[in-house]
From TrEMBL:
Binding site for substrate: R87, E152
Protein name (record): Citrate lyase beta subunit-like protein
Domain called HpcH/HpaI aldolase/citrate lyase: residue spans: 53-240
Organism name: Achromobacter xylosoxidans (strain A8)
Molecular function via GO: (S)-citramalyl-CoA lyase activity; metal ion binding
Cited Pfam families: HpcH_HpaI (PF03328)
Annotated coiled-coil segments of the chain: none
Annotated binding of Mg(2+), by residue: E152, D178
Classification via PANTHER family: CITRAMALYL-COA LYASE, MITOCHONDRIAL, CITRATE LYASE SUBUNIT BETA-RELATED
Cofactor: Mg(2+)
Amino acid sequence: MTTAIHPRDALFAGESPFPVLPVCEHFAGSEKLIGKAMDLQAEYGPVFDITCDCEDGAAAGQERVHAEMVAGMINSARNKFDRAGARIHDPSHPAWRQDVDIIVSQAGGRVAYITIPKATSWQQAAEVIGYIGETARKAGLERQIPAHVLVETHGALRDAFPIAALPTVEVLDFGLMDFVSGHHGAIAASAMRSPGQFEHALLVRAKAEVVAAALAHGVVPAHNVCLNLKDPGIIADDAGRARRQFGFLRMWSIYPAQIQPIVQAMQPEFSEVEDAANILLAAQDNDWGPIQYEGELHDRATYRYFWEVLRKARITGMTLPPEAQRRFFAD
């Protein structure tokens, strides 16, 4: 009897599949808040990442102490799933190299990613990424630490495509607040919240460019925060619009009550998950040749799409059809 070939082997031989990451990225800037986020992650499961914030979290003059705290939290037993990253200071700040030195040397084996804020060009982002890689090599690390790059300046938006093409880049984040501020009043403050953030022409253009650049290079596009901290309906609506209207596959959270509405709003539709499972099970039974499903033809092109649907469903905590769970995710 021929052993069934797993989708990751049948559909992506010789190439890397698109990264499927938790759909929520929760920012926390203090030891107390990072610890609380890690405890929530242990409770909810790895359905969201934690970004330990050095940029906005560190008090002036306390950058070294703060970076050491971040490294300690990433290394701690509370970091149950190794899904905690760090946002360093921006490339114009004198502490950014120190952030990298401390976090990579002390927690480089466990840090999930390093986020680079306020880059003004692809060359500037490349310099930081190169320094992260060099520091990792000096620390004796064999892994490449993924980089997440914030697009929140005019220069970064102009260079979104070459930034997304840089080695190790895994996520392009859109930073709404700084981007609006950089327009010197040409975009009203009301556009920092809904519905303006989804309707102002300059913001529609910027968000579409970030998503297009990310997806063209196999990188995950991440949406900005929702300013409403506690209303789950507003939070979920922002996440849903970001996903459906623009194609963002991930969104920031800045308050614990935002996490679950974001995750739920960005889950695939249950009916699509069922279809994905049925199609992939039939395809595997047919050795990944073309099949018919409910009167439609499916082949490897659609199999790849539906495999990503199943992976996204799983990483958002959805319950998969039992047979798909057994065959594809038993490990």
